[in-house]
Amino acid sequence: MAYADIRCIYASDKSGKLSPKKLSKQPVPRRGPRVKRAELAQTARAFPRMNPDLVPRAGWLREIRDALGISQSQLAARAGISRATVQQMERAEARRRITLKSLDRLSQAMGCQVAFAIVPKAGTLQDVRARQALARAEVLLKEKLEPSAYANLKPRELAHRHERLAAKLLRGSRRKLWRISPPRRPSAKSQTPKR
Predict the structure, then answer these.
(1) d(CA 2, CA 46)
(2) Which of 115, 64, 105 has its CA nearest to residue 82?
(3) Residue 101 C-alpha from the chain's centroid
């Protein structure tokens, strides 16, 4: 179990003098993946999912600067950089090549802040894991079964096998869930001899 750092607090003794008093080591509870996913899901609710088509072509920096009525020269003066640098940063942001440090600097100069988040495209992080488990189950079943046996399974039986394997993957190792299978090599039976 991990332990918190020993912290020092000041307590007054009977004479009124402050003297350091050490706290004992206190165990820090470990946060498992489920707890982390729940915490992140709560945080992600603050960030709306944006349609990529709604992102301004010229980039957010220029769009917000224009909306506020700040010229490039004025923004450069407020950020302590040259006008040409502001122009380069705006172009870089439109091409998605700007650094977070530069984005933050210009945002601060406009009286704004950068709200950076990575959120699932749809649903929650648990939904992302469930979709991954189903996709991985499909790959594993195709690897396990012969192509003809896989094709001959009834859709209901196939779906049932996918769901069972996906549930097993979700309960098991995270490495297995996210592993990428190497490309399947053709079997020796399917190769025809060259003439």
Answers:
(1) 31
(2) 105
(3) 19
Cα separation, 191 vs 170, whole angstroms = 36
Instruction: Quote the radius of gyration of the chain (alpha carbons, Å).
Output: 28
CA–CA dist 75, 79 (Å, integer): 6
Using alpha carbons, select from 120, 138, 142 the residue that is nearest to residue 129.
120
* CATH 1.10.3470 corresponds to the domain 52-109: no
By the 8 A CB rule, do 107 and 140 touch? Answer: no
Domains of the chain, residue spans: 52-109, 125-178
- Residue 18: the pLDDT is 46
- Give the chain's largest Cα–Cα span: 102
CA 187, CA 191: separation in Å to the nearest integer?
7
Q: Are 165 and 141 in contact (CB under 8 A)?
A: yes
For residue 146, the model assigns a pLDDT of: 82
Structure tokens at 101: 């440090």
Residue 17 tokens read as 């003098």
The answer to whether residues 33 and 174 touch, using CB atoms and an 8 Å cutoff, is yes
Mean pLDDT, to the nearest integer, of 20-42?
Answer: 70
- Give counts: helices (H), strands (E), the chain: 9, 2
Q: Torsion angle, CA of 121/125/129/131, rounded to 10 degrees?
A: -30
Distance from C-alpha of 64 to C-alpha of 55, rounded to nearest angstrom: 12
More confident: 164 or 29: 164
